[in-house]
Protein: Ig domain-containing protein
Amino acid sequence: MGILTRQGQAADLNKVEGEKEILSTLSVSSDREIQWTSHPSNLNYNVTNWSRSLHAGEWYHLAVVNDGETTTLTVNGVSDYGESEEVIGMAAIEGKGWNIGASEWGNELDALFAGNLQQIRIADEALSKKEWLVPDARDNQAIEGNNDKIPFLTDKDNYNFLFVPDTQKYSNHNPEILNSQLNWIAKNTKKNNIVMNAFVGDIVDSNSEVQWNRSLEAISYLDKKEIPYIMAAGNHDYASGDPFLTHYGPERFADKEYYLGSSPSGYGSFSVVEAGSYEYLFLIVDMKNLQMDLEWSKNVLDQHKDKPTIIVSHDIIYPLVENNQTVAAQSANGQLIWDELVNKHNQVFMTVNGHYFGITHQVQQNAAGNDVIQMLVNYQNVYRGGNGWLRLVEFDEEKEKLFFRTYSPFVEEMKKKDATYVDFKNLTDSSNHFEMDFDFEKRFTLN
Structure:
């Protein structure tokens, strides 16, 4: 949907690369993200900035600012994805103006904006906050959080498992956030007794060597410190030539003691780690090759019935709104995983996935009548593609508790002058910060 579009075609100016039909447009994508794309005067192709996803029924203040060198897209005072490459000026065709409330393609009006526009201003200089058209802009539903010092390990005998939500936007736009996350994990694993780090998929946004290399640079923090980690692939990680397997396939983990094997597709794997009184099995179930790897996955579970198991896959549950409440629902893949791998395998006590926009969790009973915790952790549609938030789960065998926390090392490292009203290192709402009673001895009596 077009909000503001420059009339004319880039092709008319002999700009032959990129989207030739568009000169400049501020639009809403099918994923409800704000897109600003423009052909600058100094380049022969268009440069694009993206925002997080917006919510229907809310007012937003958008600002696109070029300082003479780079362009920044800001939503309610927050720049989601940093600055663009060097961009000078905006290409224009003499005698052509702007369309308000519509996009343009091939010199014809295209999709109209289905919303309300309060005011549009185009200025020849950056505006200060005092000059904003909507004073003190805020989202209607502010993120709940704080910057308190919350311990991740409440007793020296406890231990943590850490889950890294979809990193695709960091690999694409904000590699400094991914570096911050993994550098923190590398430096704080021993202190917080983090026994395993599991990536839930969508390591990159698209099959770009730049993005793969950014992810590899960040992962190197873990490799250098010999920090245990496992990786699931997401839908954005599949491409011709299997780049995920090239970078994160079985060969990468061959010399890691905890890694015990891979599936026929190469995308699935299983690992065993010792923590507290138990040996835990982590089973990576690949979303694309679920059917191909299904019998292999069953065999792994059948051969390790004595080990408490966590299944990690990119696609299992998603958030569903019912009666103004967000609940968890099984996707098609998730239902198959439940029916074939979870329900009748009593040792599976937790599943974790990403993929879907939002955060939710639920507890279901398996065929034996025991609880299975299911979590969706994915922040890519919020600030800066996730603002560096990680999910930690602390296991307290003595108190028979599980503690779930959401933390961002990126925000903690942020200078005060750069912090905005959404920059919390701890998320504290009931979906991000909660605890569960957990009778380890009873739940893990598996034979």
Observations:
- Residues 2-131 form a domain with the Jelly Rolls fold (CATH 2.60.120.200).
